[in-house]
């Protein structure tokens, strides 16, 4: 991954079509259906700029946002300032998080596990999740479905975001490698503000885990799979054609 200031500064605008409120409601409903209560402590693992963390902090008593990227953490800390009593943001990998308490619910949303490049690292990440989960706790995450994404790889797309202050033009290109199970995404950004123009690139390498690899890693880490659904449709079972899959697990 290469750093790009423009990507970080404009992350929330670039992904403004994501409905974080709806996603958090869905997640909390899954937890409530299983445990008949709202979770007290939630871990937002791979919190990025803190959009799920903020929505969670509006509802649950304690939220921790964790991310390995210091630039994301910086943005999340600013966003979560109004929720300082309920939320904390930490720049550590889950494996190094001190065990002060356990979480009732851990989420890793918007392809966090696809940033992990090797299977042993994926197992280690899941072990970290398990260590920090209460006995009734659940772990919810989403990921690319490697089977679908390698058969029908991500394609180039462009989009424009306009605000009163600036226009952002993003050209996304993707190149996928079947044998390495990787897709390399390049965000070519141009930001126009008051007649000035800035350009930057952000490169992101994602591992296209197959559902079998994910399930085996969960097993190895001692987590049990509860369900596996197409993203945004928790009542359905995922198929080989669904690009994004939503997983639910417990200890
Ligand atoms: C696409 S962003 C999603 C951010 C946020 N969850 C959202 O939905 O906007 C993925 C995030 O996962 C973080 N990440 C990747 N690998 C991680 C790891 N092993 N532990 C913690 N965070 C990780 C990245 O730094 C990045 O901020």
From TrEMBL:
Residues 42-137 form the Methyltransferase domain. One of its GO terms (biological process) is methylation. Gene3D superfamilies: CAC2371-like domains, Vaccinia Virus protein VP39. The keyword Nuclease does not apply. Keywords: Methyltransferase, S-adenosyl-L-methionine, Transferase. GO terms for molecular function: methyltransferase activity. It comes from the Bacteria. Signal peptide: none annotated. This is SAM-dependent methyltransferase.
